Amino acid sequence: MYPNDGFRELDRQECLNLLARPSVGRIVHTHQALPAVLPVNFGLDDSAVVLRTSAASELARAIDGVVVGFEADEVDAVAQSGWSVVVTGRAAVVTDPAEHERLCRVGPRSWAPAPVEVFVRIEPELITGRELVGGRTMYGLDLSTGAATPARQMNSTSGDQKGTVS
Fold first, then answer.
1. Could you please report the per-residue DSSP string of 75-119?
2. pLDDT tens figures, 78-124
């Protein structure tokens, strides 16, 4: 995050609590030396992100054993608020039969079922998140009206360029 960008930084536990809410996120990996981003449905297992996909999928082959990014968010355009959480960690196809069976019972259901499916676990090495609440920024601008707060008006009328937004 950038200092004073108007967002509140979320701690690890807040991030995990928020990740438990949505069922769709985005997996970020490298495909032919370029970034690739795919929407996926997911679940949490302890603090790990778990995906369920076809055993024959290109995705399973591309991310098994490599560091990936995973992002989920919720946005309320009317309230001009929302949050975003990013998990960075190594992805691995679950190969243990007992673990696979357990995840079949408690893990995410595939939105595009395949005859043979695998689970991919992303163990978080880094979890970051940020939140914007109610369209207000740290600069004193109310995004819902575009109006400056009194402190911001004072800065703009006194010639102080710190309050100027380009």
1. EETTTTEEEEEEEEEEEEE---HHHHHHHHHHSPPPSS--SSEEE
2. 888 899 999 999 999 999 999 999 999 999 998 888 999 999 999 99
What does the alpha-carbon distance between residue 72 and residue 26 come to, in Å, rounded to a whole number? 6
Burial class of residue 100 in the structure, from the number of CB atoms within 10 Å of its CB (0-12 exposed, 13-18 middle, 19+ buried): middle
Work out the burial of residue 67: count CB atoms within 10 Å of its CB; fewer than 13 is exposed, 13-18 middle, 19 or more buried.
middle
pLDDT (tens digit per residue) in 121-134:
999 999 999 998 76
Q: Is 131 helix (H, G, I), strand (E, B) or coil?
A: strand
CA distance 32 to 4: 36
**Structure-block tokens of residue 98:** 């007992």
- Enter the DSSP assignment of 140: S
Asked whether residue 19 carries a pLDDT value surpassing 80, the answer given is: yes
Q: What is the DSSP letter of 26?
A: E
Cα separation, 33 vs 141, whole angstroms: 41
